[in-house]
Design brief:
Blueprint lengths: L6 H23 L3 E2 L5 E7 L4 H18 L3 E8 L10 H17 L3 E5 L3 H9 L8 E3 L2 H11 L10
Parallel strand pairs: 2-3, 3-4, 4-5
Antiparallel strand pairs: 1-2
């Protein structure tokens, strides 16, 4: 920053820098990873989920589908416990993930959810949500096995 800036100019520059940092944080908080499995993207989630972050996830996933020409999204909740959604509320989280799935379905994309912890899964079931609407697997690995089978791919263990 130049020493000849007015306080207003300096504040405007600082606000712009804060916006740039917030955009970077949003991008880093929702990694969209092209998978080795064709036409598939992976979305690993970690940390606290709130409405702003879930809106960002929805937007980034929907736009990534088009860019990556993906027909499948695997969303991994392994890094999320029921404690990290307490402020958001379980019902709101379920609504949000249903909305993500619905948006993707309209685009012809299958959504697979993996990695719900036992406590998290229990809370979802107790809440009365129809879990038959979701394709779920216990682990990321199980979700990938399902996808590989569906796409006619085979995993071979390395020979020692």
């Amino acid at each position: 920053m130049s020493e000849f800036q007015t306080p207003e100019e300096e504040i405007a520059q600082l606000k712009e820098r804060v916006q740039e940092c917030e955009k970077l944080i949003d991008e880093l908080s929702t990694p969209i990873i092209p998978s080795i499995i064709p036409n598939t993207i992976l979305v690993p989630l970690m940390g606290t989920l709130n409405e702003k972050r879930l809106d960002n996830i929805k937007t980034r996933v929907l736009f990534s589908i088009q860019k990556q020409k993906a027909d499948t999204v695997l969303i991994d909740f392994t890094g999320i416990s029921h404690l990290e959604v307490e402020d958001l509320g379980l019902q709101n989280l379920i609504y949000q993930i249903t909305e993500i799935q619905s948006g993707l379905k309209l685009m012809g994309v299958e959504t697979i959810f993996v990695g719900f912890s036992p406590n998290f899964a229990h809370e979802i079931v107790v809440s009365g949500v129809d879990t038959n609407k979701f394709i779920t697997y216990a682990t990321f690995r199980d979700g990938l096995k399902y996808l590989m089978g569906k796409k006619g791919l085979e995993f071979k263990e390395a020979e020692e």
